[in-house]
Amino acid sequence: MRLQFYGVILLSLFGTAASADPAEFEQCKTQMQLQASAQGVSEATVKEVIPTLEYQARVIELDRSQPEFTQSFADYFGKRVSQSRIDKGRELYAQYRDFLAELTRKYGVPGQYLVAFWGLETNFGSYLGGMPTLDSLATLACDPRRSEFFTTEFLLALKLLERENLRVDDMKGSWAGAVGHTQFMPSSYLRYAIDGDDDGSIDLWSSRRDALASAAHFLSQLGWQRQQRWGREVKLPADYDFTQAVQQRPLQDWRSLGLRNADGGPLPVVIGMDADLIIPSGHKGPVFLVYDNFDVIMQWNRSTSYALSVGHLADRIAGAGALKQSIPKDQVRLRRADVVQMQELLIDKGFDAGVPDGLLGPTTRSALREFQISAGLVGDGFPDRKTLTQLGVDY
C-alpha cells in the first residue's frame, strides 16, 4: 500500500520521555544543553539560547488539534481552494513565469505546483507565522508524543541559526517550527533550501525566489516525476462495485472497471502507470485517481485533504475549471476521540482498523469499508452519518 500514515509515538533522545509540563521544562532544557553540545553546536550558542527558551502551552494545544485531521474534507478544501486564492495564485504565476519555467527545466516540477504549495502554506507569504521557532521546537521536544522528531528538529534549528547567521528574534514561524514562505522544517531547510536569487545567502523568510527554488529542489529530491500529473478527478460508473480494492492498480485496470474522466471522457491509456482511488467525502462527492506525484505531495504533508488541495489548486492556477462533482456539505466533523472510538468499535466487531490512533488512514478506511459492506451500506470507506450511527459511534 503506497499511502502511509504514521502514528508512532516516538521516545525522547534523552533516555526517558520528557514531560510537557511547564514545571519540568527547565529540567528538559538542561538535558537539551548537553545534547546540543554533543551534537557540535557551539558553546556560545548553547549558553546564549537554551537558558532563555520559554515553554509554549499554545503549541501543545495546536499539536492536538491539527485541521488536516479534525476538519471535514468539505470544510478543509473549501477554505483552502478559494476563488481569491486561485486568483492570487494565477497573478503570481504570471509574475514569476520566467523564473518558474527555469525551475521546471532544472528540477522537473511545473510552476503551478510550486505556487500552489506557496498558497497552501502561507497564503503566498501573507502570513509566515508568529510563533518563536526555537521555543516552539523546544516545547515539542519536551513533550513525549513526538519527542524524538522534535528534538532532532530543535538541534538542527540551532545549527541553522549558526550557519545562516540568524537572529533568534527573527526566527518565527508555525507552531510546529516550520518557517518561511514555503514552511520548511529546520531539517529540510538545512538539506534542501537553496539560493534562488543568487545573493549568496538562503533566506526563506524574505526571498520569494529562494523559497520557490528550494521547494522545487525539495520536491525533486522527494521523487517528483517529470511529465506526470498529481492525479485527476474521475467519475465512477453507477453500478461500481465497492468490494473492489481501491488501492494501487494499473491505470488501464481502472478503465476496465468503468471509471472515466470527470467530464465523461475516457481515461488516458498510459502503459506502466499506476493509480490509487481516493474517495475523500463519500461516493456522493468527488472521486480521484492519484499517481506517484500525489505520494510526493504526501511526503510534504501527510494529509490526504492537504494533498488533494495542493493538486487541485495547481490545476486551477494553470487554468483548469472547478470540480465537476460538488462536495457534500452535510459532513460530520470528527474529533480524534471520535475516530478512536470508531476504530475501537470496528476492532470489537472483528474488522482490523489498526492501532486506535485517531487518524483516519487507509487501514481504518479499509476496515470501515468492510463493515459497511457487511451491514448492507455503500462500501466507500467514508464515515457518513448512517455508517457512524449503525456502528454505534457517539459523535
From TrEMBL:
Residues 336-391 form the Peptidoglycan binding-like domain. It comes from the Bacteria. Keywords: Glycosidase, Hydrolase, Signal. NCBIfam families: MltB_2. The keyword Signal applies. One of its GO terms (molecular function) is peptidoglycan lytic transglycosylase activity. Residues 25-315 form the Transglycosylase SLT domain. Residues 1-20 form the signal peptide. The keyword Hydrolase applies. SUPFAM superfamilies: Lysozyme-like, PGBD-like. One of its GO terms (biological process) is peptidoglycan catabolic process. This is Glycosidase family protein. The lineage of its organism: Bacteria, Pseudomonadati, Pseudomonadota, Gammaproteobacteria, Cellvibrionales.
